Amino acid sequence: MKKKFIIIFLLMIIFSFLVFFTLSNQSSKLNSSKFIQSTTPTLFFHGYGSSANAERHMTESARKAGVTETIIQANVDRTGQVTLRGRIPKGAINPIVMVQYEDNRNPDYLQDAAYAKAVVEKLKQTYGFQEMKMVGHSMGNMSILYYLLEYGSEENLPKLTKQVNLANHVAGLENWNLPSNLTLDPQTGQPSAMNEQYQKLTGLREVYPDKQIDVLNIYGDIGGNTDGSVLNVSSKALKYLLINHAKSYKEVKISGHGGQHSRLHENSEVDQLLIDFLWRK
């Protein structure tokens, strides 16, 4: 009797494993009916003091939804050398690149932009990409914005077609470099005051690619018009920099517990927004 029970128990374990394995494989298969079938890569940039692990919830959600089967990692060391972990097969659909900076606490945004450029150049050199999409969380947004400011007009680099700014602090961080009593013009979005960082980024109003990039600006509000680290007014100040030249511009507020600064990249609502914006037909 005991032997029979053990055999049944083992068979149940094997059956459960097979069911799990089958469902896992099904969840990662491409869904060509819902999502565009493009070879354009999407690059994810993490925030201050973070790593590619902060991007994993978003990228895995895309894989499980059937957006892609290909996720690789690009590691950037302090000298700007890029090492690719994983391989993008020829013809891979909607490949994702999780970017990780070794120098992940560097507030020199020009240096961060140079790191971003190094990744873009490595991908073009290795795979020949002509277009790309970018997603940034927190300081990762500065990598993207300063990259566009410094290198966005270089014709030899792949064209950016879609840009997601998640928890951006373009006008400054709360209790650090955010101008006091900051307000935005209700018509133009122009801030009532600008710190040095924002003043430099106003150059985007001149060099941002015209009618080329669709922009999605996602910010969180846990109450009090803040995500706990960034005031909503700072995140919404992005509009003034990009609105005149963006192909499209959309803002989405995530309210409640999931709108907290670091929880935004672990949020299923955000995952769905990214999937719909970046890849849905």
UniProtKB/TrEMBL annotation:
Hydrolase is among the record's keywords: yes
UniProt superkingdom: Bacteria
Query: What SUPFAM superfamilies does this protein's entry cite?
Result: alpha/beta-Hydrolases
Q: Annotated Gene Ontology MF terms?
A: hydrolase activity
Give UniProt keywords alphabetically: Hydrolase
Q: Which InterPro entries match?
A: AB_hydrolase_fold, DUF915_hydro-like
The name this protein carries in UniProt is: Cell surface hydrolase
